[in-house]
Amino acid sequence: MALPVVVEEVTAQWLTSAIAFRFPGVEVTSCRHVDVLPGTSTKVRVALEYNDTGRAMALPSRMIVKGGFEDHSPSMTDMYRNEMRFYRDVLPFINMNAPRCFFAGTDPDAWQSVVVMEDLCERHVRFCRAQQPQGYEHVALRLSAMARYHAQTWNSREFDNGGRLEWVGERFSDWSLEYQNRYLEPDVWAHYTSLPRGAAVSRYLHDRDWMVAALARIAREHKGKPVCLIHGDTHLGNLYVEADGTPGFFDAQVSRAPWSLEVAYHIGCALDIEDRRSWERPLLEHYLSQLAIFGVKAPDFDEAWHDYRRDLAYGYFIFAINETRFQTEAVNTAYAARFGAALLDHDAEGEST
Q1: Phi, psi of 109 (to 5 degrees)
Q2: What is d(CA 236, CA 208) in angstroms, rounded to the nearest whole number?
């Protein structure tokens, strides 16, 4: 089916066609745009009314329509499709708390992919924010949730040719690698280190050659490690907490990768610098114990500690080069500062080769 490529095309008629894939007989009789939230993708909050069938199914009166409605959207085709496939092809089969999805589809002849999901504001969840670092218990609960879905796909045969997850790529390959290399061009890298985020980290972390070597080391040492499905972008802005404390995840950019890439990324983002220094070891021990509970033969602590420390450089890179059209400079600076401090604490700037 045709997908909307401008916000104005998100209409009652289009939503009727989209929702009918999973809810036959439903008609959206009214659609009002409540908010339009731009970003990497655009989120359109819509207020909906239904025919009798829709009301009988108790479909929500508000939903979020998420897709590529920005000027930069044609360059984000692979990222949009990856998130759409998370909702369509991954979420039904793994144990991850995420927004309920009512439609997920793509146009293979254009850049557009669209997801129609529940509006979490209607359930009064608490959204996490970069400017509010997490406490120990919050991060421990999140790591338990990660260990559960990591364990479900640990070295899974579903990643093999013909498997359900065959399409899930590695973080350092294909479009993800192309995206990375775009920002490692010398003039591009110099631009980002000149921004406030660059002033928030040591000048030693401005060294482009070090950054290239650190990422290459991660990619090289990941070879031969057990892989699992990772959410792929567990910074605080993509996370929420249910009223009962259950961690929730959205805005996934799934890939197959060793566990350490996700755990280092999340701990680096989520904790205040001094708290991370105090808690990263016990939190890593907690994560490994949870893997064991969920049936995985976890690596020993020394190996895990090495892998965790190495992969912190990836989180630093993401926020060193993250564009302000995706996250504000305040957010990018907060995360870059946390990762920058972690890299210095672990002498990572001297261990990239």
Answers
A1: -100, 5
A2: 27
Tell whether the model's pLDDT for residue 75 goes beyond 80: no
What tokens were used for 18? 């989209």
One domain for residues 103 and 201: no
Strand partners, 127: 240
pLDDT in tens, 242-255: 999 999 999 999 99
Please check whether residue 66 lies inside any domain of the structure: yes
Which of residues 76, 93, 120 is at a domain's end?
120
Same-domain status, 65 and 165: no
Q: What is the pLDDT of residue 349?
A: 60
User: pTM here?
Assistant: 0.92
At 244 the three-state DSSP class reads coil
Residue 239 forms beta bridges with which residues? 249
We report the CATH number of the domain holding residue 11 as 3.30.200.20
Residue pair 348/314 in contact by the 8 Å Cβ criterion: no
Instruction: Indicate if 97 and 141 belong to the same structural domain.
Output: no
Token readout for 11 is 């209409």
The 3-state DSSP class for residue 42 equals strand
Is residue 71's pLDDT more than 60? yes
Backbone phi, psi, residue 224, to 5°: 90, -10
pLDDT band, residue 39 (cuts 50/70/90): confident
Q: Are residues 318 and 343 in the same domain?
A: yes
Integer Cα distance of 278 and 270 in angstroms = 13
Q: Give pLDDT, residue 70.
A: 79
